[in-house]
Amino acid sequence: MIGLAANAAAPRRAADDSLTGLPDRRVLDRWPVDLIGRAATSVRAVLWIDIDGLTEVNDLAGYAAGDELLVQFAVRLQECLHRPRDVLVRLGGDEFALGLTAANADIAAGIGERIVQLAAEPFLIDGQTIDVTASVGLGLAGSFGTDEPEAPIGLLLSLSCAAMRQAKASGRARLSTLSDTEPAAAALVERGDIGRRIKPALAAGQFELHYQPLFEIATGQLREVEALLRWNDAELGRLFPASFIPIAEHTGQIVALGRWALGEACRQAHRWHAAGTPRTVAVNLSPLQLTDPNLVGDVQHALATAGLTTDALRLEITESEAIRDFQGTSCRLSELRDLGVHLSLDDFGTGYSSLAMLRELPVDTIKIDRSFVQRLDQPANHADTVLVRAVIDTAHAFGLDVVAEGVERAGQLAALTQMGCDLVQGFLLGHPQPA
Questions:
Q1: Between the CA of residue 191 and those of 196, 244, 291, 317, what are the distances in Å?
Q2: What is the DSSP string of 342-402?
Q3: From 100, 116, 303, 310, which residue has the greatest number of CB atoms within 10 Å?
């Protein structure tokens, strides 16, 4: 057994990686306090190490060879420990992390370069020479001098992971460094912080839905509402979707978040129905949800649990999602349509798609993107007027309803009314608000 890199004499822990004997990623919640005690206050650099080419090794030489390479590489990494209390962790797959205590920038960079060199040396496995490389990211607490009391581990992990991706993007087999003093690091650290907060925030009930009304132009009646996510974080304050939805997509947490939003929207729709004010609720689906094999089952479960009829739910996908995988999207939407739910194509006009796709996709509504609505009341903007009118007429020819988004001025509403648009939503008519 390789044993704990932090202390070779330490007893084996339940969280050890069974292959290499190193601590595994489950200790990150406590790292490095649980491993190196008071030395946690002196951790000033983290190296995130990713082996380039392990997938190819597994494919060509077999998984046993890949596992042996990981074991040998872990042994080599231990040669790079700077001090007895440095911590080496296997994050999973082909990724490792090395926490360096009391290391300045030069020492940390030197260790990172050494790791790149060690990875490039041939591995001998079952009499066969195997070559790989490593991309290494260095996260450095540059704003913390040697006399400062602490360096935040979560920040260092975010920086080192982002730096490793930079090394990959720059050609692999190299070291890339990010310090918390660099302007570009602030956004990366914020993204990492938000990403780590999503799961516990969902468990703690910090998310809520606000609803924006959609009005029928012909009658002026409120016909539907669109459910929009909001997040109230104790430290970060109120967060709007643009600040966390892309991160949730990137981390895969959007599936759980979308499942919660779907369930909550159905429950609220049932409350409105029971109160004598029935209205259809529209819920946005993310690209990852569309590829999730459990999506149809999740929709069925949400409807059944809430006691909601299928015609009270509308699911929306963006035009760009439909174009990305037209056949797959069409099949999944057909399954959802068979349940009886309504389907909308959102942000129409932004994806450079053919109007013919309206004939192929099983949707009953399209939503014209706000970028086309914004200039409708400007006399010099004849092109958008012609385009919007053509979209409305074509959609009606296919038997589809048309919603115009982003209606903020009376002139826009008047133009859409004259064109025969069916429904409108926007700040002129109503802001998103709690149920």
A1: 9, 8, 24, 25
A2: EEEEEEETSS---TTHHHHS--SEEEE-HHHHTTTT-TT-HHHHHHHHHHHHHHHHTT-EE
A3: 100
- Cβ neighbors of 204 (< 8 A, separation 6 or more) are none
Parallel, antiparallel, or unpaired: how do β-strands 401-404 and 128-130 relate? unpaired
Greatest Cα pair distance in the chain: 80
Cis peptide before 32 (omega within 30 of 0): yes
At residue 172, what are phi and psi to the nearest 5 degrees? 70, 175
CA distance 91 to 160: 13
We find that the CATH architecture of domain 200-424 is Alpha-Beta Barrel (3.20)
33: exposed, middle or buried (C-beta count within 10 Å: 0-12, 13-18, 19+)? middle
The answer to whether residues 382 and 403 touch, using CB atoms and an 8 Å cutoff, is no
Structure token pair of residue 52? 């380039």
Q: What tens digit of pLDDT does each residue of 69-119 get?
A: 999 999 999 988 877 778 889 988 899 999 887 678 888 999 999 999 999
- Four-point Cα dihedral 250, 251, 254, 255, nearest 10: 120
For the CA atoms of 427, 429, 432, 435, what is the dihedral angle to 10 degrees?
170
DSSP string, 160-222: HHHHHHHHHHTTSSSEEEEETTSHHHHHHHHHHHHHHHHHHHHHTT-EEEEEEEEEETTT--E
How far is Cα 343 from Cα 336, in angstroms, rounded to an integer? 8
| SS3 state of residue 104 | coil
DSSP string, 117-171: HHHHSPEEETTEEE--EEEEEEEE-TT--TTSS---HHHHHHHHHHHHHHHHHTT
How far apart are alpha carbons 215 and 235 in whole angstroms?
A: 36
The residue among 354, 329, 353, 355 whose CA lies nearest residue 343 is 329
User: Which pTM does this prediction carry?
Assistant: 0.66
Spell out the domain ranges in the chain: 25-181, 200-424
Q: Which residues pair with 50 in a beta bridge?
A: 95, 135
Q: Which two tokens stand for residue 296?
A: 């149809």
Which pLDDT belongs to residue 234?
80
Per-residue pLDDT tens digits for 185-203: 667 667 777 888 899 999 9
CATH topology of domain 25-181: Alpha-Beta Plaits (3.30.70)
Cβ-count burial 177-187 (b if 16+ within 10 Å, e if not): bbbbeeeebee
Helices 382-397, 410-419: crossing angle, 10 deg rounding: 40
List pLDDT tens digits, range 124-176: 999 999 999 999 999 887 654 444 444 467 677 878 888 998 899 889 999 99
